[in-house]
Amino acid sequence: MFKKKSHHHMVPPKPKKDKNWKPINFSKYNCFIFMTDSSCWDLNRYRNSKQLSIQKIHSCNQEGWVVLRVKAASFHRFKSLVWMIDDYSENYESPNEVIGFCQHKEIPSEDYVFKVDKESEDGYFIGSFRTGKNFGIYLPNANSHKSGNISLSRNHEVNFDYEISKLPMECIDEQETPANEN
Prior knowledge:
Layout: E1 21-22, E2 29-36, H1 43-50, E3 53-62, E4 65-71, H2 75-92, E5 98-104, E6 112-116, E7 124-129, E8 134-138, E9 150-153, H3 160-166
Antiparallel strand pairs: 1-9, 2-4, 2-5, 3-4, 5-6, 6-7, 7-8, 8-9
């Protein structure tokens, strides 16, 4: 059986020309990266090379998951960081799983999860909004508009509730303290 591929597995059009484009006001999101088995991952290398403000939440190393909070990143830079961590995991077998979570500061139904689509060509993420609406992101076009390039899909490739159920969500609700900064 072949998996039915959605339109986002082809090189999609730029955001404003994509009839399925969902613009995102990325300043209204808190951004997190969840990863498993990340003992070899070098946080400082990515923070310094990409000039991102990354906060590692130490107390959230639960059940093998480590949670990073990324501040002051654009849509493209955040997605690129998730891509780099996942790429690192392919080469060094750590971390084993990488999931991006974007939590809307005001509207919970606008929360979304995403991950690298392992069944596609390079450059694709698949994800889902809390509402269950699935989407694709083509990383090379992610910086072509400040509101990103999420392209909604009719296919159901990611289940938001399932992905969230695996993650230690209680970690993102903890108070931030300067001692947590890495």
